[in-house]
């Protein structure tokens, strides 16, 4: 070894010398190039863990873009149409889970604990509750303790802080004195402190953060389960530290049911699982937890973030080993199921990486290096090994972890992607369901279970069916749950349902179904729900703040049903402790829930309670929540607060002077909500708060002031004119002061209040003009306001409202100059305001000078615009020109010049806008008698018909249409005969906008000026139009069909009809349908007799499509012509006869609907004979089962009821009402029922006389004497002979005396 | 109800029909229907004043009495319901 040592020493020596030699030289390096000290600073020190940001879009990376081959510009790439979400375009469904769309605040619902059931004072009467039941007193005591703890913690924290400040001050005096101890303490202090508690609590255990049992005492609650709690205190502490409001967790463990025997029963397990969810929110490493803590709930929820793979790691790393090693408790089974394939892969992959990167051991190094010539050196003293706790945690603790790569063993026992076959026809289970339904997989013999366990199992089965089953399964399961609710018992039911609703992976649909289950079960259980009210509320309350409207409605419904079932007293008892909960989330949801209770049980019932809460001396939180309840009531039930307005206001009014700022704020907001709900009534109820409000605005600042102003803003509109004016003047001083506030929220509220004040009756225009306007414009009409969208809106609205009071000139005069401002957003804001003001109030107040300025400004703004997506400039221009009317005449040449110039612009957008402007101002140009100018514009537009951008072409066509509409066909230039042939090829254009405008224009010409165009041209257009029947947009198809009518009118129906009838042969259904409509329209415009012969002749074509088309045309035709149908009904009857007897279903269906329209059209016009004849053909079809056919048949019969009278149809009906075959009876009763609903009174005259048949004979009938019978004839032959049929029968037994 | 019209308008239609008292169904017996018919008839007589007047003249009673009688008869127009065999 010596030689080796010597060699090493030598080498080290040499290196030292080299380094020493280099050291001074390094200065001579070109420092610009070799800046030795920090040349790595631009490098990434670590490989980014998430590779989404950096490399997501290679095109964004400058270098990558330059290196890449030629590609499309980035703007285009970014603009690539994607189907909404990226995932969807890839064929993946967007996540349906509720948790994925929730924000952090809403996610706090998962921190709530489903509280154990409570004592039901009503059920147990005067008996003393058993010690283990939780009574109201217990809960209140717990709540008080919790609050006290919170306060103590706060005090401790404050003292600690003070002390630290003192210490820091002290340290300055004697630096570096207590460094180490200080450091150690610091860690501890972030949570809770010691020094004072030490004195108070006498124990010194505070100083030992770990493994002291004493800490448990912090959590101690008077419930019995608490003592036995043996959770390692460290993990508890960790959780404590993360969440500033602890105690929830501790509580959950303290439940008598769960805490005492955690996990012994499945129910206990579920209990235990839930609180862990709260642990989840804080991704602390959970290494030290006991196995019980690691219920799959933790894992399931760890998945989304993947934040704590370590926690999920343990159970599933070696799926075979881990599970097999453990005793086969239900928990183990759960574990096996709960790990998802992705998780599994992730874990395996991670483990693999870990294994590869693990430091080499000495043995491995020995095997790698030769034995000779190497020596193990001491690490230099400066060396510190890397200690990354995270990595340590990730190290595999499993005994079976293989160090190197091993060929993954194929596990035939597990198929992760194939849902397991469920025993007993149960629906599939998702991995996260195993936790709740895993017990169903145990193939136990049901007989052996205790009745309670059987019940549990039954509930689980039914719930699983409701949650994951097919619709029929779900329906029956739901019904069973409902029917057996009382039998199964409230406790077991809710213990199963509610944890499911807290599942973090819940989806909307599942939640909806489960909520539905609760709703149904509530109805049945009624007062039995009492002990579970709070539990249910914990789960349902979050629905009230869900962003989905329907979820909110659902939540409201449940809570209102719950309060009806449990009664007010129970509801209050359940929710009272939450009112001053330390968690704001709980208070917020409780307030909302209370408002629902109020709307369900009536406000008066809740008033005394609310009054007490709002005056609570104990905590400001209670007052705050109480007042918030009032606010929520107002929002929820709107104007229905009016009867209770005064008492509600009285309850909360003292809050305006509360010592707590939050209470003052919420009081003002509640008053605002009440005033908004009550508007425009109820000012007298607010009398008592006016003074404090108006005094308040003088003494408050910031948020509170904003709330007060908001309340005032809503109250002023309720006042009488005089008072409104007085109070507005009072508040205006403050408002004007706050005009300058830099706070955005304040700005919005101020603008809103100004709007509300100004729109009130009593506020005079002069006052606004003199006192408000100058400051208003100085502070708000600035460029900055145009940049924020919401400010922009509010400012425009408020200004328009002011304009309604003070008139156009004042407002427009002030801002018209700004149309030439250099900021485009600002110009747009000005333009929008002017547009709205002028559209509201007209332009009659604008004097010539202002008019000039206005037109000038508008022209400037219009020309200078660079981007106008919302068409603000265009709309503004149109509105102003239309408002000015004839006064625009002098400016028209200038405007037209601008338009012409812009029509020739390079940018398509500009051309389009110019064309659009023409269509806006065409009417005004006509008013100004500028027809020559319009003709000129027409020619210009005509020349631009070669436009290639479809959007622009569409606008040009629209402009032409506007001109044609205004100046008429005869005066149009270019003449119609030139214009139309130019339009024919454009009809081929497939762009929607082009099609729509073009067909409108052609239709207009066909309507008004068909004679200017030769018939051949029209025929050509007819062919083009057929294509347009395929259009997607309904408007286009409708316009096309109408155009057919116009053209047919112009050139006679024959040719058009031939074209259309030929089109019936095409394959496309939509096309045929539109053709049939067109035929019907042609028939309507040109009288049916011109069309019917050809149409009926076409029926002879032996082709289904054609025949159906003909029938459909007939159907539409009779629908359109209505009464006119009486002349044609006899003509088409043979055809319909044939169709109604056809084998083809569609024939009969269509013919039946034709019969319906016919019958409805000719009702009361004396065609009964033909109709009865047709009814005889329709009637046999009543046994059809195809939904469309049976619908059509039933409607035809309904039509007959109208046309022939109910009695006739009743007589058809009577034969089958008591038919021996049920199928027949069913149909006949259906017809009877619709008859009954349609014409009940008319049936009285036609009811049959029921003869005496023994004991079921009506009394009146057997009461001897001269009962008058008029029999009804039901023989088949007579039904056939229509006219004799209407012989009615009266049950005239009451006329005995006659 | 057949599978075909479980999801179409017909099912809703039947639901709607079921809401009216006087409507019937396939399992209705003669007696139940007769009761409906009688009640409908009496209701119609009472509802149409001319009919009431007509009966009043025929039976030589006051109109009010007629109305009262009809209403009374609506209670059990066909006597007590017969015993049902199937129950």
Write a compact overview of the structure shown.
Chain A: One of its GO terms (biological process) is spliceosomal complex assembly. The complex is a heterodimer of chains A (1298) and B (87). Chain A has 1298 residues and is mainly alpha-helical.
Q: What would you note in describing this structure?
A:
The complex is a heterodimer of chains A (1298) and B (87). Chain A has 68 helices and no strands. In chain A, α56 runs parallel beside α58 (1088-1098). Chain A is globular. Residues 46-73, 76-91, 175-338, 391-402 and 1257-1298 of chain A have low confidence and may be disordered. Chain B is 57% helix and 0% strand. Chain B has four helices and no strands. Classes of the chains: A mainly alpha (1298), B mainly alpha (87). Chain A binds chain B through residues 1185-1187, 1190-1191, 1217-1218, 1222, 1225-1226, 1229-1230, 1232-1234, 1236-1237, 1240-1241, 1243-1244, 1247, 1250, 1253, 1255-1261, 1291, 1294-1298, and chain B through 2, 4-5, 8-10, 13-14, 16-17, 20, 22-26, 28-31, 33-35, 37-38, 40-41, 44-45, 47, 55, 58-60, 70, 73, 76-79, 82-83. Chain B: One of its GO terms (cellular component) is precatalytic spliceosome. Chain B: Pfam families: SF3b10 (PF07189).
Task: Please give the share of residues in helix of chain B.
Answer: 55-70%
Instruction: Count helical runs of chain A.
Output: 68
Oligomeric grouping of the chains: heterodimer
| Rg on CA atoms of chain A, Å | 42 Å
- Percent of residues in helices of chain A comes to 55-70%
Count up the domains of chain B: 1
Major sheet size, sense and barrel closure of chain B: none
**Low-pLDDT segments of chain A:** 46-73, 76-91, 175-338, 391-402, 1257-1298
Tell me, briefly, the overall form of chain A.
Answer: globular
**Proportion of residues in extended strands of chain A:** under 5%
GO biological process, one term (chain B): mRNA splicing, via spliceosome
Pfam families (chain B): SF3b10
Protein name (chain B): Splicing factor subunit
Family (chain B): Belongs to the SF3B5 family.
């Amino acid at each position: 070894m010596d030689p080796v040592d010597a060699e090493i020493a030598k080498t080290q020596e040499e290196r030292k010398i080299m380094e020493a030699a280099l050291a001074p030289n390094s200065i001579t390096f070109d420092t610009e190039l070799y800046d030795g000290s920090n040349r790595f600073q631009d490098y990434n020190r670590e490989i980014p863990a998430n590779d989404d940001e950096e490399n997501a879009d290679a095109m964004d990376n400058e270098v990558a873009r330059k290196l890449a081959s030629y590609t499309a510009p980035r703007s285009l790439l970014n603009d690539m149409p994607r189907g909404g979400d990226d995932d969807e375009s890839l064929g993946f469904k967007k996540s349906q889970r509720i948790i994925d769309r929730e924000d952090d605040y809403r996610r706090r619902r998962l921190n709530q604990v489903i509280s154990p059931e409570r004592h039901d004072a009503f059920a147990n009467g005067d008996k003393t509750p058993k010690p283990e039941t939780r009574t109201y007193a217990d809960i209140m005591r717990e709540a008080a303790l919790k609050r006290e703890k919170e306060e103590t913690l706060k005090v401790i924290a404050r003292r600690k802080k003070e002390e630290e400040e003192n210490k820091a001050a002290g340290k300055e005096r004697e630096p570096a004195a207590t460094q180490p101890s200080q450091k150690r303490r610091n860690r501890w202090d972030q949570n809770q402190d010691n020094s004072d508690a030490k004195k108070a609590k006498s124990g010194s255990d505070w100083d030992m953060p770990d493994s002291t049992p004493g800490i448990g005492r912090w959590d101690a609650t008077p419930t019995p389960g608490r003592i036995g709690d043996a959770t390692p205190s460290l993990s508890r502490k960790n959780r404590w530290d993360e969440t500033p409001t602890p105690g929830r967790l501790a509580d959950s463990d303290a439940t008598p049911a769960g805490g005492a025997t955690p996990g012994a029963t499945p129910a206990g397990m579920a209990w235990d699982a839930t609180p862990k969810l709260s642990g989840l929110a804080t991704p602390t490493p959970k290494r030290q937890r006991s196995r019980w803590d690691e219920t799959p709930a933790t894992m399931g929820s760890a998945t989304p973030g993947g934040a704590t793979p370590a926690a999920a790691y343990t159970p599933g790393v070696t799926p075979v080993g881990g599970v097999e090693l453990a005793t086969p408790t239900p928990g183990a089974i759960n574990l096996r199921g709960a790990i998802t394939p992705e998780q599994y892969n992730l874990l395996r992959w991670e483990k693999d990486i870990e294994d590869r990167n693990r430091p080499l051991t000495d043995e491995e190094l020995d095997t790698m290096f030769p034995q000779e010539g190497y020596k193990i050196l001491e690490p230099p003293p400066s060396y510190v090994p890397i200690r990354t706790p995270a990595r340590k945690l990730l190290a595999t603790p499993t005994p079976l972890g293989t160090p190197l790569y091993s060929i993954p063993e194929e596990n035939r026992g597990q198929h992760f992607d194939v849902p397991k076959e469920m025993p007993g026809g149960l629906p599939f289970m998702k991995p996260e369901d195993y936790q709740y339904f895993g017990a169903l997989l145990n193939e136990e013999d049901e007989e052996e279970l205790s009745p309670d366990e059987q019940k549990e199992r039954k509930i689980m089965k039914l719930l699983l069916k409701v949650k994951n089953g097919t619709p029929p399964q779900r329906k029956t399961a739901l019904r069973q749950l409902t029917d057996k609710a009382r039998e199964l018992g409230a406790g077991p039911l809710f213990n199963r349902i509610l944890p499911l609703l807290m599942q973090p992976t819940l989806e909307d649909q599942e939640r909806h179904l489960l909520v539905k289950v609760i709703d149904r079960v509530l109805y049945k259980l009624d007062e039995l729900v009492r002990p579970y009210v709070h539990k249910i509320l914990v789960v349902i309350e979050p629905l009230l703040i869900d962003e989905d409207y329907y979820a909110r409605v659902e939540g409201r419904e449940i809570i209102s049903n719950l309060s009806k079932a449990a009664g007010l007293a129970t509801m209050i008892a359940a929710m009272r402790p939450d009112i001053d909960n330390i968690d704001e989330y709980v208070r917020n949801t409780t307030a909302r829930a209370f408002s629902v209770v109020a709307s369900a049980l009536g406000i008066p019932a809740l008033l005394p309670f609310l009054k007490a809460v709002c005056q609570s001396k104990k905590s400001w939180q209670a007052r705050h929540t109480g007042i918030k309840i009032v606010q929520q009531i107002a929002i929820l039930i709107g104007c229905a607060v009016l009867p209770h307005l005064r008492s509600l206001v009285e309850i909360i009014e003292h809050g305006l002077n509360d010592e707590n700022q939050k209470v003052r704020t919420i009081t003002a907001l509640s008053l605002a909500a009440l005033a908004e709900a009550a508007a425009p009534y109820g000012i007298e109820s607010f009398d008592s708060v006016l003074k404090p409000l108006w005094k308040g605005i003088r003494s408050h600042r910031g948020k509170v002031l904003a709330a007060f102003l908001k309340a005032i803003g809503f109250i002023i509109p309720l006042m009488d004119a005089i008072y409104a004016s007085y109070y507005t003047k009072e508040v205006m001083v403050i408002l004007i002061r706050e005009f300058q506030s830099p706070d955005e929220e304040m700005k919005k509220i101020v603008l809103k209040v100004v709007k509300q004040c100004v729109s009130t009756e009593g506020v005079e225009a002069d006052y606004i003009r003199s006192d408000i306007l100058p400051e208003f414009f100085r502070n708000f009409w600035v460029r900055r306001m145009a940049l924020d969208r919401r400010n922009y809106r509010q400012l425009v609205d408020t200004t328009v409202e002011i304009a309604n009071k003070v008139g156009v000139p004042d407002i427009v005069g002030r801002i018209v100059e700004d149309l030439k401002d250099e900021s485009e957003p600002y110009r747009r804001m000005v333009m929008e305001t002017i547009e709205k003001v002028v559209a509201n109030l007209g332009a009659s107040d604008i004097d010539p000078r202002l008019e000039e300025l206005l037109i000038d400004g508008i022209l400037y703004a219009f020309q200078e615009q660079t981007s106008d997506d919302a068409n603000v400039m265009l709309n503004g221009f149109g509105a102003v020109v239309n408002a000015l009317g004839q006064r625009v005449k002098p400016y028209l040449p200038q405007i037209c010049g601008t338009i012409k110039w812009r029509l020739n612009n390079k940018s398509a957008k500009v051309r389009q806008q110019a064309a659009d402007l023409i269509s806006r101002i065409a009417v005004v140009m006509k008013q100004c008698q500028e027809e020559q100018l319009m003709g000129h514009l027409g020619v210009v537009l005509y020349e631009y018909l070669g436009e290639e951008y479809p959007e622009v072409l569409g606008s040009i066509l629209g402009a032409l249409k506007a001109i044609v509409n205004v100046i008429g066909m005869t005066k149009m230039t270019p003449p119609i005969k030139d214009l139309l042939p130019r339009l024919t090829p454009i009809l081929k254009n497939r762009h929607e906008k082009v099609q729509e405008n073009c067909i409108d224009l052609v239709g207009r010409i066909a309507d008004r000026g068909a004679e200017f165009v030769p018939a051949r041209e029209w025929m050509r257009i007819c062919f083009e139009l057929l294509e347009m029947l395929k259009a997607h947009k309904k408007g286009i198809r409708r316009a096309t069909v109408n155009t057919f009518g116009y053209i047919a009118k112009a050139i006679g129906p024959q040719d058009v009809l031939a074209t259309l009838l030929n089109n019936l042969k095409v394959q496309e259904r939509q096309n045929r349908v539109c053709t049939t409509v067109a035929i019907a329209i042609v028939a309507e415009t040109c009288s049916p007799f011109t069309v019917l012969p050809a149409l009926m002749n076409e029926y002879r074509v032996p082709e289904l499509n054609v025949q159906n088309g003909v029938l459909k045309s007939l159907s539409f035709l009779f629908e359109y012509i209505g009464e006119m149908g009486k002349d044609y009904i006899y003509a088409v009857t043979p055809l319909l006869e044939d169709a109604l007897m056809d084998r083809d279903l569609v024939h009969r269906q269509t013919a039946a609907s034709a019969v319906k329209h016919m019958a409805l059209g000719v009702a009361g016009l004396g065609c009964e004979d033909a109709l009865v004849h047709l009814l005889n053909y329709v009637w046999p079809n009543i046994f059809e089962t195809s939904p469309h056919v049976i619908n059509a048949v039933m409607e035809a019969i309904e039509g007959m009821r109208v046309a022939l009278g109910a009695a006739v149809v009743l007589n058809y009906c009577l034969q089958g009402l008591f038919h021996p075959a049920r199928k027949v009876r069913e149909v006949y009763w259906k017809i009877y029922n619709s008859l009954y609903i349609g014409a009940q009174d008319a049936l009285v005259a036609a009811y049959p006389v029921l003869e005496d048949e023994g004991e079921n004979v009506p009394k009146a009938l057997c009461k001897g004497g001269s009962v008058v019978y008029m029999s009804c004839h039901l023989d088949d032959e007579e039904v056939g002979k229509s006219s004799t049929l209407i012989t009615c029968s009266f049950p005239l037994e009451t006329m005995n005396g006659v | 109800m057949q599978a075909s019209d479980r999801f179409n308008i017909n099912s809703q239609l039947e639901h709607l029909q079921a809401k009216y008292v006087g409507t019937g169904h396939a399992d209705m017996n003669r007696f139940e229907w007769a009761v409906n018919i009688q009640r409908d008839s009496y209701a119609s007589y009472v509802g149409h004043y001319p009919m009431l007047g007509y009966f009043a003249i025929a039976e030589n009673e006051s109109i009010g009495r007629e109305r009262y009688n009809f209403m009374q008869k609506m209670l059990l127009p066909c006597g007590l319901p017969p015993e049902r065999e199937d129950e």
